[in-house]
Specification:
about 220 residues, alpha/beta, about 15% strand, globular
């Protein structure tokens, strides 16, 4: 079974920051593939500002087309209702020892608001990626509370390219570019350049589909 990372999100739109982070984590942990999973109905984000799910999925496919280690999945788009990660992990059919869930450090601190967070942690190895320059402290009371509630003892780190420790929440420091999807949407609406922020094919798709008010 291929060692697989699930990288979920709204991808509204996908950008170079997502791609760089996924590639660094894949290389660091020696993963075989990273599956990008656009959420149809994210449980923690308003749907009013989302581009249509088929468009977000199409942009993901365009963005990763030249990387054989990256895959796009429409699993959550095909499933009705809210896109809960616990349901997605269960449906992927990958053994927990071979499945890794990529989440940011802010998301980790909010994990107890997710559906069945303890089960999420049992279905996949959690990989927490602090944002560059963030004040995330893995020894803080807030972080320890989440660890305790999901049944984990500690954060662990892995040597670059070496097999990760067999248990614990993995802490991986990867480059996070100062790119935000909300800023990209504003730039598109204002007719400003998206170059060097999203792949060229994604910028062309946004312009062609007039997403986020582009070309309006």
């Amino acid at each position: 079974m291929a060692r697989t990372a699930l990288f979920g999100g709204s991808f509204n739109p996908i950008h170079d920051g997502h791609l760089l982070l996924a590639d660094e984590v894949r290389e660091h942990l020696g993963l075989d593939r990273v599956v990008f999973m656009p959420a149809a109905v994210p449980p923690h984000k308003p749907v009013s500002g989302l581009a249509p799910a088929p468009d977000r999925y199409a942009m993901v496919k365009l963005a990763i087309a030249d990387n054989p280690a990256f895959e796009a999945s429409d699993l959550e788009l095909r499933r009705p209702g809210t896109s809960y990660t616990v349901d997605t992990l269960a449906a992927m059919g990958v053994p927990p020892a071979e499945l890794f869930l990529l989440i940011g450090s802010e998301t980790f601190l909010d994990l107890l608001s997710w559906r069945e967070p303890h089960r999420v942690a049992s279905l996949a190895r959690l990989v927490v990626i602090p944002r560059t320059g963030s004040a995330f402290d893995p020894k803080s009371a807030a972080a320890r509370k989440v660890l305790r509630e999901i049944g984990m003892d500690a954060f662990v780190t892995a040597e670059h390219g070496a097999p990760p420790p067999a248990s614990g929440v993995l802490l991986v420091h990867a480059t996070s570019l100062p790119i935000s999807a909300s800023d990209l949407r504003l730039r598109a609406a204002a007719g400003r350049s998206l170059a060097y922020r999203v792949p060229r094919a994604v910028a062309a798709y946004i312009a062609g589909k007039r997403l986020y008010g582009a070309g309006a």
